[in-house]
Amino acid sequence: MTKTNKTTKKTWRTIAIAIITISTIGLGGCNMRQSNQNNGTQDPTTHTPPRMERIRQEILAHMYEKYGVEFNVIAIDFSRTREYINMYPVGGCPEADNVRAVRMIVDGNVVETHDSYFGIIIREDAEAYVSAMLTDIDLPMNVFFESLVQHFDNIFDGTKTFADFQRIANESADISSRFNVAIIVSHDGDVEERQNVSEQIFDALTKGEFGGLALVMFLPSEGFEKNTRTNRSELSNEFRESTTIFNRRINPRGGN
Questions:
Q1: Most buried of 26, 85, 175, 233 (most Cβ within 10 A)?
Q2: Is residue 209 in a domain?
Q3: Is the pTM of this model over 0.85?
Q4: pLDDT interval class at 255 (50, 70, 90)
Q5: Which DSSP letter does residue 2 get?
Q6: Distance between CA atoms of 14 and 7, rounded to whole angstroms?
Q7: Separation between Cα atoms, residue 71 and residue 92, nearest integer Å
């Protein structure tokens, strides 16, 4: 056998050993990943059916215990540190009564849960409270409490009312009495006239000691007649050329 043939055999033997080694490492890596998954250490953002069902069952139990109300879950999403659940009460409207819950996660455990359902409980009283501040403005308008954007302290459960909310917030330095409203106004004037009206609205809210974000949306009378709690975005698109929006964050005097 020539020296060249010996060298060639040695080279092919080296290549074969390398391939076997790489394959073994690859299989070991796959086995390690499978072992990690079986041990529950998979990526915490993975959407698996068992995890989704577990979250659904846990949030439904939490909401029933807190409010005595059953809910239908619409969607679930999560990151490494939070789980987001959208739902609505059984018998309610998925759009008008949409509720969001957020669960904070630390080391795989739920450490805190907040939700927006208390806003639906108190919204009619809150809307009446704000509307009473605007009685001197002689224009058709609707006041809508923006319930979905605010998560309330867990002290506010199914036994509490809007009056409780105001009282507890006024007595506590840690709980805010602020909330957000959308005020939809029927007005066929120009932008300058609408701005003057918006200033009257903001002044009235300030004098009434409202605290929070107030959005004032002017629609032509034709659009205002179509206005509901859930179609503000659609109307602003439909009447784009004749819609004007102003907003202002108002701080209550001496309040939190």
A1: 85
A2: yes
A3: no
A4: low
A5: -
A6: 11
A7: 9
Q: Give yes or no: residues 237 and 157 share one domain.
A: yes
Q: How far apart are CA 198 and CA 245, in angstroms?
A: 9
CA–CA gap between residue 134 and residue 140 (Å, rounded): 11
Look up residue 38 and give its two tokens. Answer: 């079986």
Q: How many domains does the chain have?
A: 3
d(CA 112, CA 138) in angstroms, rounded, equals: 45
- Does one domain contain both 111 and 126? no
Residues 123 and 201 in one domain: yes
Q: How many CB atoms lie within 10 A of CB 22?
A: 10
Residue 256 lies in a domain: no
pLDDT digits (tens, 9 = 90+) for 197-213: 999 999 999 999 999 99
Q: Would residue 18 count as lying in a domain?
A: yes
Residues 37 and 145 grouped into a single domain: no
> Which residue range is the domain that position 214 belongs to?
118-250
Per-residue 3-state assignment (H helix, E strand, C coil) for 60-113: HHHHHHHHCCCEEEEEEEECCCEEEEEEEECCCCCCCCCEEEEEEEECCEEEEE
User: Could you report the per-residue pLDDT of 129-171, keeping only the tens digit for each?
Assistant: 999 999 999 999 999 999 888 888 889 999 999 999 999 988 9
